[in-house]
Amino acid sequence: MKMTFRSWLLQQQSRADRVGKLARALSTVDYSHTPARRKDDEHKKWADIITRQGKPEHIQAFNRAWNEYLAAKGYDS
Length: 77
Prior knowledge:
Blueprint: H1 5-10, H2 18-26, H3 42-53, H4 56-73
């Protein structure tokens, strides 16, 4: 099964840092209304969610979380 950013992020809810706070804040967001794209750009989708649903301080946490997610998947950021 392919690890998605959402599944990775939900696993981070117990963290005591900004990434954990972001994970808890976004755990209740309804993702079903995100627009479909021809090519699934997961980063763009989440950046849109953060700017629509999140608070300004979540942007920095999202950038850190995204880099950690890529590292967990085995990609260089």
